[in-house]
Automatic annotation (TrEMBL):
Domain DOMON: 105-228
Protein name: Cytochrome b561 domain-containing protein
Residue stretches making up the Cytochrome b561 domain: 227-438
TM spans (from-to): 259-281, 302-321, 416-435
CDD domains xrefs: Cyt_b561_FRRS1_like (cd08760), DOMON_DOH (cd09631)
InterPro entries: Cyt_b561/ferric_Rdtase_TM, DOH_DOMON, DOMON_domain
Organism for this UniProt entry: Stephanodiscus triporus
SMART domains attached to this UniProt entry: B561 (SM00665), DoH (SM00664)
One GO location term (cellular component): membrane
UniProt-listed PROSITE patterns: CYTOCHROME_B561, DOMON
Gene3D superfamilies per UniProt: 1.20.120.1770
UniProt KW keywords: Electron transport, Membrane, Signal, Transmembrane, Transmembrane helix, Transport
Compartments (UniProt record): Membrane
């Protein structure tokens, strides 16, 4: 095929027919300088036919090009690769893939369910779970298994760097209550705890359903995580419960209900036992600094009446919400101690109404033996209940922190503030006892109104108790 057709490059036939036609006319039919209309190198009589041929040729080539474009197979447009779509609930098959859960900014958990041949995920006979906990630091790590999100009564795998992870039972909050299971129950495989590049890594494979142990299901489970501040097993620096669905890899922080109710319980208990009680007692002990009118008694009665009302409210909240949560009342040490203090208080209040009266001032009568015994009993009970009440409030702070996953640092701050306040109140009470003794031993310092035969006031003890203590006219409790 010629490179040119009628003087036009073949490649130019890809242009529009109208353009080609105009080019042909310009090439084969243009006037000379003299104005005579002649076609250079072509007889004049052939000029019209050349124009026609050029037109038909351009039209033919243009049509052929169009037909070729029409009949040519279209280049298939590649379908867009669909983006990876996670299920709406974020589920993932943890029997085929290693699932991950970021438990905290410092702790990552990886796990996979191992389903033996011959069983299904629903039945999961002899299934095991492989776990790997990675902590950014060097410390002991624990993954626990629970039914209620609380540490007490739960089971855990604890890994100490350089040792072999073992299964433990959480019998109490003290380190002595973290008890290893017997050797026959130590069924972990591939267990290791080591430090690599500044990270503590604990790996183990555990049977999901074991006799007399908390079962790990393929559905929703309540787990616990914790880690310490060093490689020596001790108090955790951080911990929290969490719900984990092993079949879908969904992780949710355990939201323990009734937060406001238990917070109100603690606040009312502290106001009653930690604030109003010391103020009420000190209003009696420092009566010598107050006007000679019975102001001390009015203050004392107001403080302790309010404290008693708060005590009843706090105790009622505890009983009501413990029952509501299905935990059963008075099954823990804290609950039993509260019941003991409440029962003793009720007896003490009742005894106050039937107390033996003290002799009137300047009557010359001596206290009866019954009165002396009653006073001694009240003093001893008051001191013992006060100490027990202070401990009870401290225990309550710790239980609240565990129940609602308060960070160890925040719990520590609250405990420090609590004991500083209790220490201050205790110091004022001791100072008041010393002042009262000095006042009674100094002639002319007694200022109790002679019209008062004896006065009764209620000492409300921390948490769940109230003591009825009697003060006679000379200031004796």
């Amino acid at each position: 095929m010629h490179d040119k057709i009628l003087g036009i490059q073949v490649q130019e036939f890809s242009q529009k027919p109208s353009n080609i036609f105009i080019r042909l006319l310009n090439k084969h039919h243009h006037p000379t300088q003299g104005g005579n209309k002649k076609c250079t190198g072509v007889p004049t009589m052939l000029a019209p036919s050349s124009k026609v041929v050029a037109f038909l040729l351009a039209l033919c080539l243009s049509s052929r090009s169009a037909l070729a474009s029409y009949h040519a197979e279209p280049v298939p447009t590649p379908e867009p690769t669909p983006a990876a779509i996670d299920p709406a609930d974020g589920s993932k098959d943890c029997t085929k893939d290693i699932c991950e859960s970021q438990l905290s900014k410092d702790l990552l958990l990886k796990y996979q369910i191992n389903v033996p041949s011959g069983t299904t995920l629903d039945v999961c006979e002899k299934c095991t779970i492989s776990m790997e906990a990675i902590y950014d630091g060097e410390a002991w790590i624990s993954i626990g298994f629970s039914t209620d999100g609380l540490m007490l009564g739960s089971e855990a795998v604890i890994g100490i760097p350089g040792g072999v992870p073992q299964k433990y039972v959480m019998e109490s909050k003290s380190i002595d209550g973290v008890v290893p299971m017997p050797d026959s129950a130590q069924t972990l495989t591939d267990a290791i705890a080591e430090v690599i590049d500044g990270q503590t890594i604990m790996k183990f494979t555990k049977i999901m359903k074991e006799t007399d142990e908390i079962e790990i299901t393929t559905q929703a489970n309540t787990f616990l995580w914790a880690y310490g501040s060093s490689a020596t097993l001790g108090y955790h620096s951080a911990r929290s419960p969490f719900d984990l669905n092993l079949s879908s890899s969904l992780v949710e922080e355990v939201k323990v209900p009734n937060y406001s109710a238990w917070l109100a319980h603690g606040i009312m208990a502290f106001l009653a036992w930690g604030v109003l009680l010391p103020f009420g007692v000190n209003s009696s002990l420092f009566r010598g600094l107050l006007p000679k009118e019975p102001l001390w008694f009015n203050l004392h009665r107001a403080f302790n009446t309010t404290a008693f009302a708060l005590f009843v409210a706090a105790f009622s909240v505890a009983v009501s919400y413990t029952k509501k949560e299905g935990a059963g009342n008075f099954k823990t040490i804290h609950g039993k101690t509260g019941l003991l203090l409440f029962t003793s208080t009720a007896m003490q209040v009742t005894g106050g109404y039937f107390r033996p009266h003290a002799p009137l001032p300047d009557s010359g009568e001596e206290k009866t033996l019954f009165r002396k015994v009653w006073e001694t009993k009240h003093r001893c009970f008051g001191l013992g209940a006060l100490a027990l009440g202070f401990w009870q409030m401290s225990e309550g702070i710790e239980l609240f922190s565990i129940k609602f996953s308060v960070s160890a640092s925040n719990e520590g701050k609250v405990c420090i503030a609590y004991w500083v306040w209790i220490g201050f109140m205790t110091a004022t009470l001791l100072l008041g006892v010393w002042y009262s003794k000095i006042r009674k031993e100094t002639p002319g310092k007694g200022n109790s109104p002679p019209a008062v035969e004896d006065t009764e006031f209620s000492v409300v003890m921390p948490k769940d108790a109230m003591l009825d203590v009697e003060v006679d006219a000379d200031g004796q409790g």
